Amino acid sequence: MGDKTCVSFTLNGEPRSLELEPRWTLLHVLREVYNLTGTKFGCGTNDCGSCKVLIDDNPVNSCVYPAKKLEGKRVLTIEGISSDKRYMHIPQAFVNAHAVQCGFCTPGMVITALGLLLEDPDPDETKIRSYFTGNLCRCTGYVNIVEAVNLAAGRSTHG
Q1: CB-based contacts of 127: which residues, under 8 Å, 6+ apart?
Q2: pLDDT tens digit string along 59-71?
Q3: For the chain, which terminus, N or C, has the lower number of CB atoms within 10 Å?
Q4: In a domain, 157, yes or no
């Protein structure tokens, strides 16, 4: 059933090697091979951002990322953020800013926030809103998400 490919990469700080099918996406690998279900399957078409992960510090939709391109890459998922003391303030900022409602988009939002803050530790509101254009949220209206990023950056826009 097709030629399998072997890739070596880092997942949440741990070296991994995997033999995979050519059509597998990174999302499939995360959820089905490694049982990391914090990364959500929302659309499967690169539209919603629920499946966002960081690859070499850049936010990527894992639902369309070919797993065969993982060779030598560093992948960070929501589980990796939650267990890394350097980044734990970001999910907490989402809680503190009430940027978590139904929670489905939250892992992708937190990943995107980290990607932004790694690129620009002090983004203004325009940059924050622009950076989140690939992440859909039906609950928060994005105001609280912007506040969460501000909190994670060490500032608050309220009081």
Answers
A1: 116, 120
A2: 999 999 999 999 9
A3: C
A4: no
Same domain, 112 and 49: no
* C-alpha to C-alpha distance for 151 and 157, rounded to whole angstroms: 8
Question: Of 80, 97, 120, which one is at a domain's C-terminal end?
Answer: 80
91 and 67 in one domain?
A: no
Residues 35, 50, 29, 92: what is their CA dihedral angle, to the nearest 10 degrees?
-50
In the predicted structure, residue 152 carries a pLDDT above the cut 90: yes
- Among 80, 111, 135, give the residue marking a domain's end: 80
CA distance 133 to 3: 36
DSSP the chain: ----EEEEEEETTEEEEEEE-TT-BHHHIIIIIS--TTS--S-SSSSS-TTEEEETTEEEETTTSBGGG-TT-EEE-HHHHHT-TTTTHHHHHHHHTT--SS-SSHHHHHHHHHHHHHH-SS--HHHHHHHTTT---SSSTTHHHHHHHHHHTT--S--
Q: Is the model's pLDDT at 52 over the cut of 60?
A: yes
Cα Dmax for the chain: 60
